[in-house]
Structure formats: structure tokens, C-alpha cells
């Protein structure tokens, strides 16, 4: 199976590096293209057997699965630039990791028989702790879907969901890391305000979030129950939680996710 990746920004590069780190034996079957040659060179320095291509068409002519890791507004124009006939072989399966470009929209830019898989990854793919949700049309061969899942599993947990759920998933796991970073920033800043070094305050905030997340993963208890277990009556945690409630913390999180979700829907309409 030959894999092509167009676009080697943060997400494209993270996916490629995660895959090749685990499957270096497949490097010679990977074809890369980016408008910035330096981005290709950085990856080929670590994985010299990869194939560097100097045009989108060059990648298209070589591969069985083509991953588009480009900005949403560039997806349709890129698809329309692809050759419209394949005489000697089947069309490659298209895999898009761009937010808010529907399978239907992409299909309108391609031949009717083209397999399309739309995925929503998040940035923790860069440290092999990502989340990727996806759906596909009926033209994706089973062997291509299984290969794409292997590609994704190298750096993420993978979930197959109905496409209509991808926009709310974008708002939760796609945008979610930024919400977590904001909380870490705020907790770090408060530690600094009260005399901790920035390094110690950042470590405390970061490791506490990691530890709490691991507790949720490893425990049979719900997050609500775990929160109760750490909250003593009239203690420090209860005081902190009351302050968060008074500030509308839960409502703010709901508002953030809802706003991101609505923006994802707007972008989908704009990218038709």
C-alpha cells in the first residue's frame, strides 16, 4: 500500500512522524508534498527513505491512499486540481483531516467512484496521545480503511462515528486542548502570583491535569464521583469549587464548546 501526504504543517507532520516512527519499514512507500521544500527536507532527514514529490499530481499518480493535511479553504481547490481520469488503476482513496469540509462537498470535486474518508484529529497526535474520529463514504475499499486506521493508530485513539457527529467532536477534542492549555496557564499564573517559580507552578498545574485525567481513565467512578472524593466538607477544595461555580465555570465550558460547534457548522457551510 502506497501512502501520500499533502501538507506537512503541524498535523500533517505529526501524523507522518508517528506512523514512520512505528513503521520505518514502510518509509519507501510514503510520498510527501508540501509547498515549502524545507518541511519535506526536515522529515526526510529523519526518514531518508521517504519519497519527496514536487507537485500534487506527482503524489496522486503514485499512491493508493492520499491524505490531505491542508487548510479547510484549500481542500476543494486542491481536489479540483487532481487529474480526472485513471486509466491504469483505481482512484486513490482521499483522506481529509481538514475541519468542516464534508464528504459530500469533497465528492462534488471528484469522480463519483472516489473513496473519501473524513477525519478529525487533534494536536496531541504530536506526542502520540491524540484522538481521531472519522467517517467514510461507501467507495472506500476495506483494505484502504484498515490501512488508514493503522496510520492513525500510530499516534492516536481512533473512533469511527457518523459524519454528523464530527462537528461536535471538533468542538470537544479538536479544540479541547486549547481549553486545557488555558486552564494550565491560569493555574500557573496564580501560582506565580503567590510566590512560586514559573517552572514549579507550570509543573504543578500540568502534572495535576495529567494525573486527574489518568484517574478518570483508570477508575470505574465518574468524574463527578472523583470530584466528590477529593472535596472535604468546608475544606480548601470545596472553597475553590464554590469560587468556580460562582464564576460560572461549567457554563463557560458549555459556552466554549457550543461556540466552537456553531463555528464548525458555519465553516462547513462556507466551505461548500
Strand-helix topology:
Blueprint lengths: L2 E4 L3 H13 L7 E4 L3 H10 L4 E2 L3 H5 L4 E4 L3 H9 L12 E4 L6 H6 L7 E6 L8 E7 L5 H12 L2 E5 L5 H9 L1 H18 L4 H21 L4 H7 L6 H11 L2 H22 L2
Parallel strand pairs: 1-2, 1-4, 2-3, 4-5, 5-6, 7-8
Antiparallel strand pairs: 6-7
Helix pairs in contact: 1-6, 7-12, 8-9
Describe this structure in words.
This protein is an alpha/beta fold and 272 residues long. It is built from 12 helices and 8 strands. The chain has helices at residues 10-22, 37-46, 56-60, 72-80, 103-108, 142-153, 166-174, 176-193, 198-218, 223-229, 236-246, 249-270; strands at 3-6, 30-33, 51-52, 65-68, 93-96, 116-121, 130-136, 156-160. The protein has an 8-stranded mixed beta sheet. Helix 1 links the parallel strand 1 (3-6) and strand 2 (30-33). Helix 7 (166-174) packs across helix 12 and helix 8 crosses helix 9. The longest helix has 22 residues, at 249-270. The chain is elongated and about 70 Å long. The model has no long low-confidence stretch (mean pLDDT 94).
Produce a short descriptive summary.
With 272 residues, the protein is an alpha/beta fold.
Low-confidence stretches: none
Shape: elongated
As laid out across the biggest beta sheet, the strand order is 3-2-1-4-5-6-7-8
How many angstroms does the end-to-end distance come to?
A: 31 Å
- Please state the structural category: alpha/beta
Number of strands: 8
How does the major sheet shape up?
A: 8 strands, mixed
Sequence of secondary-structure elements: EHEHEHEHEHEEHEHHHHHH
Beta-strand portion reads 5-15%
Number of helices: 12
Percent helix, as a range, is: 40-55%
Mean pLDDT: 94
Q: What integer value in Å does the Rg equal? A: 22 Å
